[in-house]
Amino acid sequence: MLVLVTLVLAATLLVQLSSASLRKQSESLEAQAALQTKWARLSCERAALSQASLYFEALEQTRRRPSQKPESSSSPLSQTRQEIMLGSCRLQLLVADESAKANLNSLAQISPAKTHLLSKQLIEPRYVPDLKPFPSFPLRYLGDVVDMSALNARHGNVRVVAEVAQNVSIWSQSLNIHRASDRVLREAIAVVVPKGRADSFVESLRDSPNSGLATILRRTIKNKEEQNQLTSILSDRSDCFSVWVESMDSKGNRGLSFRVQRVNAEGVIENYSFVF
Prior knowledge:
By secondary structure, the chain is of the alpha/beta class. The protein is about 45% helix and about 20% strand. The protein has 9 helices and 9 strands. The strands form 3 sheets. A 5-stranded antiparallel sheet has the order 1-2-7-8-9, with helices on one face. The chain has a two-stranded parallel sheet with strand order 3-4. About 30% of the residues are buried.
């Protein structure tokens, strides 16, 4: 009888040890997969941001060629999508030129009320109910612009925040007139001048795509104060790029991150990272 009890106890211990070993092995594999996904995401972020400036510059130069159709010059040069596989991890990248978007912080220095109205006009109508009253300026996080909890509740996830921020930004120093869409340009300029003159500015730019900001301003805006205000929010160059990375591992676990890199007013490169 004693032998039988001993055998039962031994078998029970072996089962428990085996279960613990399998549990540890499973936890180890999950940790390994999470680490691989993290490094894949970080690698994509760094690689994308290191090449973003050159990529959008090449697109802009292509658009400025005389052989390009007139209508092609009115389309934005603001973002590009890419999907890649790294090991067992699938990653979807959305790389954007933040300087091709209307900067809410710089516009708010001219008119907070008009800037809030502009945000409603440039964001897709289905996301407007998720916008928050701006708490104060400067806006520092996307959560200052949109209610993340409401966004998740209404749309099932926060991944759509990338779509919310398609035409507006809180990161860039100014709006690149050569890469912004006609719509973004008109709405941003209309914060300073009437719609008619905003239209004239965009039409003059599209007629002479190789002209610089100063030239277009002299042609279309005669008031010196308005010229100065527009010079403070517009630019001929880009100083800020971002990348959204949505990752999915072999088990279907998803992750979302956002990283932005910009050159500040002192010429220093700044990086900001967020994980959702």
